[in-house]
Design a protein that fits this description.
With 141 residues, the chain is an alpha+beta fold. The protein has a single domain (2-118), classed as 3-Layer(aba) Sandwich (Aminopeptidase), CATH 3.40.630. The chain has helices spanning 10-21, 27-31, 81-95, 110-118; strands at 2-4, 36-42, 47-57, 63-72, 100-103. A five-stranded mixed sheet has the order 1-2-3-4-5, with helices on both faces. InterPro entries: Acyl_CoA_acyltransferase, GNAT_dom. It holds the Pfam family Acetyltransf_1.
């Protein structure tokens, strides 16, 4: 079963965070963000997958989705769970007014790329780009 998670579902979301990130404690804060969008796949007992990201409002009065992570636990792969999570995420964004979605995946992640291409995703054609990561520490900036 695919469930959209809201602040009231923090317990379910925290279980997904533990399952896929090995961490605890941040799920409630994330779900409290007005731009958060997350789904969890579960049979009621086991967490089989999740996806999460953001609905981003832009200054030109348009909006888009950013899918930060989609993951299905190894024993559940190949059963359509990733596709169901992705479809639910995209449907919710479209219903909220988003007209585009973006994500990043590893070049060698053939399974993910196949899924994204099968639902109409295309490689970004913005020319050569590079990505930068910054660690932000309040005393350093």
């Amino acid at each position: 079963m695919i469930n959209r998670v809201f602040p009231a579902d923090a317990g379910l979301f925290e279980r997904a965070v533990r399952t896929f990130r090995g961490a605890t404690g941040g799920g409630r804060a994330y779900l409290g963000s007005p731009d958060a969008l997350a789904y969890v796949a579960s049979d009621g007992r086991d967490i089989s997958g999740w996806c999460w990201g953001y609905h981003l409002i832009r200054p030109d009065n348009s909006s888009m989705l950013y899918l930060h992570q989609l993951e299905v636990a190894e024993p559940y792969r190949g059963q359509g769970i990733g596709r169901a999570l992705l479809s639910a995420f995209m449907r919710a964004g479209a219903q909220a007014g988003a007209t585009r979605m973006f994500l990043t995946t590893g070049e060698a992640n053939a399974a993910a790329r196949s899924l994204y291409e099968s639902v109409g995703g295309g490689l970004a054609e913005q020319g050569p780009t590079v990505s930068y990561w910054f660690r932000l520490n309040p005393g350093d900036v």
